[in-house]
Write a structure and sequence with these properties.
A hairpin with a 2-residue loop joins strand 1 (12-13) and strand 2 (16-19). The chain is built from two helices and five strands; from the N terminus they run E-E-E-H-H-E-E. Residues 2-13 have low confidence and may be disordered. With 77 residues, it is an alpha+beta fold. The strands form two sheets. Strands 1-2-5 form a three-stranded antiparallel beta sheet, with no helix packed on it. The chain has helices at residues 34-41, 46-49; strands spanning 12-13, 16-19, 25-27, 64-66, 73-74. The protein has a domain at 22-74: Roll (Membrane-bound Lytic Murein Transglycosylase D, Chain A). Pfam families: LysM (PF01476).
């Protein structure tokens, strides 16, 4: 039996360390849109998960949103 222990808070699958591209709580930066954040973070459902966003076109720096990345990226193979 092999026990795998991660020294980071990143998820591990098998012997692969997976990277979450964005934290679950995300602060919008200058020039970002929901589309660019969705692409960067792998979350196509940002609007649905953030009911405080009444107008998806009214996104501004400092806005705090919830992110649920759908596809973690592999760091180590």
């Amino acid at each position: 039996m092999v026990l795998e222990i991660s020294l980071t808070d990143e998820p591990v699958r098998g012997n692969q360390l997976l990277d979450r591209p964005c934290d679950e709580i995300y602060v919008v930066g200058e020039g970002e849109t929901l589309h660019t954040i969705s692409d960067k973070c792998g979350d196509p459902y940002i609007v649905e998960q953030n009911p405080h966003i009444h107008d998806p076109d009214d996104v501004f720096p400092g806005l705090v949103i919830k992110i649920t990345a759908s596809k973690p990226r592999k760091l180590v193979g």
